[in-house]
Amino acid sequence: MHKLPPLPYDYSDLSPYIDEETMRLHHDKHHQAYIDKLNGALEKYPDWAEKAVADLLGDLEAVPAEIKMAVRNHGGGHFNHSFFWEIMRPGRTDNVPEGELLFKLNEVFGDLLSFKEKFTTAALGQFGSGWVWLVQNGQGELAISTTANQDSPLELGQKPIIGCDVWEHAYYLKYQNRRAEYVDNFFAVINWSVADANFKHAKLG
Ligand code: MN
């Protein structure tokens, strides 16, 4: 049985960048719903129910046909949201990358501002519901990527380093249609320490 992981901070801790009501709904209702539906789909497949969700998504072709779409959508929803909670921390105005990742972002994107612009452009260009990511791609390079719905970078052979939920449920209560403002404020709550750890982990392979 998959279980809802607790937030690594309080519901109100990301405020004012992400408000408490959004965090409560997003974590307790939306994320829980993906887990309930994933568990429901796996009920008839006890061997598959024991596997880690990242392993299911990393080899979706192997998943039984009857539950493949449910695992893709709800397993993806479970993985993406679990990742999302961990990649955020209480906000700060001087929130900047650290460690090896800072060096690499400058090398690949020129500077932090250019990275932020490219990430935001990708987020705004994602039509409808989905996610924008900083990943290590299949060629081992740092890249910005988007996925539709609850598709996960793992399905594309990519390793996520940063991920931002751009479904309307992630921002609509506070930002309404202002996705750009939401993404701008997401940069204040990125947990760069976790991002750097994700980067190091991705490099190790
Ligand atoms: Mn979401």
From TrEMBL:
UniProt enzyme class: oxidoreductase
SUPFAM superfamilies xrefs: Fe,Mn superoxide dismutase (SOD), C-terminal domain, Fe,Mn superoxide dismutase (SOD), N-terminal domain
One of the record's GO molecular function terms: metal ion binding
Domain Manganese/iron superoxide dismutase C-terminal per the UniProt entry, residue ranges: 97-196
PROSITE patterns referenced in this protein's UniProt entry, alphabetically: SOD_MN
EC number: 1.15.1.1
Family to which the UniProt record says this protein belongs: Belongs to the iron/manganese superoxide dismutase family.
Entry-linked PANTHER family: 37S RIBOSOMAL PROTEIN S26, MITOCHONDRIAL, SMALL RIBOSOMAL SUBUNIT PROTEIN MS42
Protein name, entry field: Superoxide dismutase
Record organism: Candidatus Vogelbacteria bacterium RIFOXYD1_FULL_44_32
